[in-house]
Amino acid sequence: MSTVVGRRDLGLTTLVAAGDPGIGWAVASELADPAAYLRGGELLLTAGVNLPAAPAGLRGYVDSLVGAGVSALGFGVTPVHDTVPAGLVEQCRARGLPLVQVPRPTPFAAVSQAVGAELQELHLRDLRRLGEAHQALALAVTADAPVDRVLRVLAEALGGWAVLARPSPAVPGGARRTAGAPAELDPELHGLADRLTRPRGPRSAKAQVRGDEVFLHTVGAPPGEHGVVLVGRPEPLGVTDRAVLRTATALLELLARASRGAPPAPGRLITGLLLDGGLTDAAVPLLAELTAPADAPAGAALPGAYRVLRARPAGRGRHTAPAALPLGTRLLDAGPGEDLRAVLADRGEAAHRAHLDRLLDHGWIAALSGPADPAELAAADRRSAALLTRARAVGGPLLEEPADPFDALLAPGGGEDLARSVLGPLAEDTDSARLLRRTLRVWLTRHGNWDRAAADLGAHRNSVRYRIGRVERDLGVDLADAEQRMRLWFALTRWPY
After folding, report:
1. When you count CB atoms within 10 A of the terminal residue's CB, does the N or C end of the chain come out lower?
2. Contact (Cβ atoms closer than 8 angstroms) between residue 5 and residue 14
3. What residues are paired with 399 via a beta bridge?
4. How many C-beta atoms lie closer than 10 Å to residue 382's C-beta?
């Protein structure tokens, strides 16, 4: 609130100060009792059109606002009142409700716009803070003592202390704690940790202990949980703080699982950040380090580009564990029942074709994207995922072609525009549209074979028939027509989502 009040262009004057409450929005209302239409956290703006004159009425008006959780009251002087009524000032002071005078030249719309601008700036700051925290956590898992480092980054990001209680046996040394954390947990916190680790207990909790608000969250879920993270600080956690805490607990779970044969946690975490999110310039050297061969000399030049690998077991027979594959990278992500994903430094087409053949010898059928800059890794991942569908259909590994000759016929961005016009409702960003796009793509890859498409999709053949029927009805096409199939394949392969 202080930021908005401090703006000189608004000319606001504080008549009753009561801390610096947060404001969720600014709302103008001249109702005699607006509380029923408020959600709490508002800066309520009024010119006092229906303000009660009697002290009892003013007391009831302010009581209702406080009961509704209003953060502050902004009173506009003139045309109804030349000054803020003294009785209103008295009641706000008695109930601890901040009161601000809005001068005549300042419209309520200007105050609302100022509140909106400040909320947008807060949102951007939160996004930057979240990105910085995620990057610091990604770097923490590559440290010599990753568990301790993750806890330190978590405590610093939240401005408090952190403890990992009852860690997995894979984490040596027992409980871990950061500076400022209590040497011994309060009995109440011990009791909450007991509840969280029960098979049917909650996964998170909070408590007030010695002036701190303490938040507890399990690392994993019983019976496979790996401890309880506790973070404490005087203020409650906001939305961004909770997102940081969730990332840290997921990271600690991955670190605990790494000793049981899962791919290294640094690889899983950073691969997800690169392929599902974004990459800052500061992290490019880390990317080069994690994709360098084990025998690469220190201080070697950064790779010119990177490639994204997608792979699945070639059949139901035995295949090499993901962590033991000869990938030459630590950026590896392979969850149970999911595609294997990896980021590789570009080593030339011939070397990568030989690499794909070696993976097939290990029982994996793979697809590899073309070269991509670090900022283009997410798009390369989507292309390699689509290529893997084709690779499984043809029964052999595939490497993305250097360039698509059809792209020369289209203006920049024209491929996506053309795909949107051909796909119509299938281009929408909904679960239904995504399911139909995926079904259609697999069905076309399998040349209309219902059984093979159903096996790839993990669905019943009748479900595939129903979905393809929906595609025909929604688009008004006959998929027995080879030209219609060609158009849809062209659109699907150029649709980036």
Report:
1. C
2. yes
3. 368
4. 16
**pTM (2 decimals)?**
0.50
Q: What is the pLDDT of residue 261?
A: 45
Residue 359 has what pLDDT? 92
Nearest-CA neighbor of 378 among 306, 469, 478, 297? 306
143 contacts: CB under 8 Å, gap ≥ 6? 149
Give me the pLDDT at residue 225, please.
Answer: 64
199 or 301, greater pLDDT: 199
DSSP 304-338: S-EEEEEEEESSSS----GGGS--S-S-EE--TTS
Phi and psi torsions of 206, nearest 5°: -150, 160
The whole-number pLDDT of residue 497 equals: 57
- Look at strands 364-368 and 306-313 and give their pairing: antiparallel
| Residues sharing a CB contact under 8 Å with residue 144, sequence separation 6 or more, in sequence order | none
Give 109's contacts (C-beta < 8 A, 6+ positions apart): none
Residues 337-361, mean pLDDT to the nearest whole number: 87
CB contact at 8 A, 426 and 435:
no
* Distance in angstroms (rounded) separating the CA atoms of residues 307 and 35: 57
pLDDT digit string, tens, across residues 362-398: 999 999 998 988 778 888 888 898 889 888 888 889 9
Q: Which helix (H) or strand (E) holds 423?
A: helix 414-423
Among 256, 249, 271, 278, residue whose Cα is nearest residue 128: 278
